[in-house]
Amino acid sequence: MLLSFYQEDFVEAGCDEAGRGCLAGPVYAAAVILPREFHNEVLTDSKQLSAEDRYKLREIIEKEAVAFAVASVDHEEIDRINILNASFLAMHKALDMLNIRPQYILVDGNRFKKYAEVPHSCIVKGDGKYFSIAAASILAKTYRDDFMQSVAHLHPEYDWINNKGYPTIKHRQAVLDLGFTPFHRKTFRVTDPQLSILFEDEL
């Protein structure tokens, strides 16, 4: 069972993103504030769950959360400001959209750009430790998957319906053979070793 809260004094929002290591499409982020009594035996890091379970959990999260929001930053902005800054921007946008102002922020990972004057803690592998971060990971992942599925038919050769823009062998080969689509991040080199590391982090 994951932990409910990092601290108990302030209204706490969990944040996470999805799509950091992709070759194509936007990066998505979510912010979630859960009720104090929230528990779920299935909810954990989205990467550990089947797609079916993720979508079932999305319904539960959206029904039971005190507040939630999902935001994205597109591939063009990623190319302009780099993926790390784009990930922070997407999380800030999601936090801006919450109808309740969080007093404390839990972020998955080891880095975050301070949001207003709200204190935060970075939790490495936090999506497998805290409900709110896990919930944010579910929302970010499923909404991003929905987007990639919605555009997959425009460029079927890249197999986005299955890889969702991640650098699988088939996707990389399609880029090498056919070049970039209008949805590709042009600053991401297809053969960059960094991509395999990012991809492994998100599987």
UniProtKB/TrEMBL annotation:
<dbReference type="GO" id="GO:0003723">
    <property type="term" value="F:RNA binding"/>
</dbReference>
<dbReference type="GO" id="GO:0005737">
    <property type="term" value="C:cytoplasm"/>
</dbReference>
<dbReference type="InterPro" id="IPR012337">
    <property type="entry name" value="RNaseH-like_sf"/>
</dbReference>
<dbReference type="GO" id="GO:0043137">
    <property type="term" value="P:DNA replication, removal of RNA primer"/>
</dbReference>
<keyword id="KW-0963">Cytoplasm</keyword>
<keyword id="KW-0479">Metal-binding</keyword>
<feature type="binding site">
    <location>
        <position position="108"/>
    </location>
    <ligand>
        <name>a divalent metal cation</name>
    </ligand>
</feature>
<feature type="binding site">
    <location>
        <position position="17"/>
    </location>
    <ligand>
        <name>a divalent metal cation</name>
    </ligand>
</feature>
<keyword id="KW-0540">Nuclease</keyword>
<dbReference type="GO" id="GO:0032299">
    <property type="term" value="C:ribonuclease H2 complex"/>
</dbReference>
<dbReference type="InterPro" id="IPR024567">
    <property type="entry name" value="RNase_HII/HIII_dom"/>
</dbReference>
<dbReference type="GO" id="GO:0004523">
    <property type="term" value="F:RNA-DNA hybrid ribonuclease activity"/>
</dbReference>
<feature type="binding site">
    <location>
        <position position="16"/>
    </location>
    <ligand>
        <name>a divalent metal cation</name>
    </ligand>
</feature>
<keyword id="KW-0464">Manganese</keyword>
<dbReference type="GO" id="GO:0006298">
    <property type="term" value="P:mismatch repair"/>
</dbReference>
<dbReference type="InterPro" id="IPR036397">
    <property type="entry name" value="RNaseH_sf"/>
</dbReference>
<dbReference type="Pfam" id="PF01351">
    <property type="entry name" value="RNase_HII"/>
</dbReference>
<dbReference type="InterPro" id="IPR022898">
    <property type="entry name" value="RNase_HII"/>
</dbReference>
<comment type="function">
    <text>Endonuclease that specifically degrades the RNA of RNA-DNA hybrids.</text>
</comment>
<feature type="domain" description="RNase H type-2">
    <location>
        <begin position="10"/>
        <end position="200"/>
    </location>
</feature>
<keyword id="KW-0255">Endonuclease</keyword>
<protein>
    <recommendedName>
        <fullName>Ribonuclease HII</fullName>
        <ecNumber>3.1.26.4</ecNumber>
    </recommendedName>
</protein>
<comment type="similarity">
    <text>Belongs to the RNase HII family.</text>
</comment>
<keyword id="KW-0378">Hydrolase</keyword>
<dbReference type="GO" id="GO:0030145">
    <property type="term" value="F:manganese ion binding"/>
</dbReference>
<dbReference type="InterPro" id="IPR001352">
    <property type="entry name" value="RNase_HII/HIII"/>
</dbReference>
